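pls design
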C-alpha cells in the first residue's frame, strides 16, 4: 500500500554497537575467560584478599553485559594481577589500554541508548544523535546513516526531521509526506537541551542551529509524534510474557 514504516532506532543502535564490539572479539573472549577462572573457589578467594569486587561475565547476545564486564575489569585489574593462577589470561599493558578506550566508547554509546528510551525523544533527536555517533565512529554508518539499507522509508524519515527543523524538503521528501500537509505556517524556534552526557551534548549542538523559513507548508501534528523506537511495545510484551 506504500505506507511509510519507521523502524526502531534502538534496534539500529544495538546492531551498530554489536558490530563495533565484534572488532574487539578476541580480546573480549580473553577477558571473559579470565572472569570465568576468577569465579572458581580458589581464585575467588585469592582475589578477595585484594578487592571486594566480583568477576562479571558477559552474555554475547547483549552488548550491555559486555559493557559491564569491561567496566569491572578496568575497576579491579590491579587486584587481578595478584592472582598468579590467571596470569596467562591477564591482558598485557597495550590490551589494557585498548579496554580502557573501549570502556570510554561504550559509556558514550550507552548515553545515546538511554536517551533513545525517553518518551520525549523525537525522530529529529535520533537523527542528531546518530549523525554525531557516525562522526565519532564512521563504521557505524552502515546502520545509523539516514539512507542505511535497514531504513524502510528514508525519504519519509528525512522529511519528518526536516519539518521539525523547518528546512526545505526535496521533491522526494515532499511527495513522501504530501498526504499530511494541511496548510502554511511560519517558523518557530526549537527548544534547547542541557548538555550533561555524550548524547545530551549532541542534542544541544544540533538544536542550536538557526532555522527560519517563512510561509513553510504546515503538516499534520501527527508527524511530530512519530515514535522513533518500539521500546514501549517491547516493555508491554515483556510484562505480558512474565505473567
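designed seq:
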Amino acid at each position: 500500500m506504500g505506507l511509510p514504516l519507521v523502524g526502531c532506532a534502538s534496534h539500529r543502535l544495538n546492531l551498530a554497537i554489536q558490530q563495533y564490539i565484534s572488532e574487539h572479539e578476541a580480546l573480549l573472549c580473553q577477558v571473559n575467560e579470565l572472569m570465568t577462572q576468577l569465579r572458581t573457589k580458589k581464585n575467588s578467594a585469592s582475589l578477595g584478599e585484594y578487592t571486594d569486587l566480583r568477576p562479571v561475565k558477559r552474555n554475547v547476545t547483549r552488548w550491555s553485559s559486555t559493557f559491564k564486564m569491561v567496566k569491572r575489569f578496568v575497576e579491579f585489574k590491579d587486584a587481578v594481577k595478584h592472582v598468579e593462577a590467571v596470569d596467562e589470561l591477564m591482558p598485557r599493558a597495550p590490551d589494557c589500554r585498548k579496554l580502557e578506550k573501549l570502556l570510554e566508547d561504550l559509556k558514550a554509546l550507552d548515553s545515546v541508548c538511554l536517551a533513545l528510551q525517553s518518551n520525549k525523544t523525537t525522530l529529529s533527536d535520533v537523527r542528531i544523535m546518530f549523525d554525531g555517533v557516525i562522526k565519532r565512529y564512521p563504521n557505524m554508518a552502515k546502520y545509523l546513516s539516514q539512507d542505511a539499507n535497514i531504513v524502510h522509508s528514508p525519504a519519509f524519515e528525512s522529511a519528518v526531521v526536516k519539518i521539525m527543523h523547518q528546512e526545505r524538503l526535496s521533491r522526494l521528501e515532499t511527495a513522501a509526506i504530501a498526504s499530511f500537509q494541511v496548510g502554511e505556517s511560519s517558523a518557530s524556534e526549537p527548544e534547547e537541551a542541557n548538555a550533561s552526557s555524550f548524547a545530551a551534548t549532541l542534542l544541544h549542538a544540533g538544536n542550536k542551529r538557526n532555522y527560519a523559513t517563512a510561509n513553510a507548508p504546515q503538516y499534520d501534528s501527527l508527524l511530530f509524534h512519530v515514535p522513533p523506537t518500539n521500546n514501549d511495545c517491547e516493555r508491554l510484551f515483556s510484562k505480558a510474557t512474565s505473567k
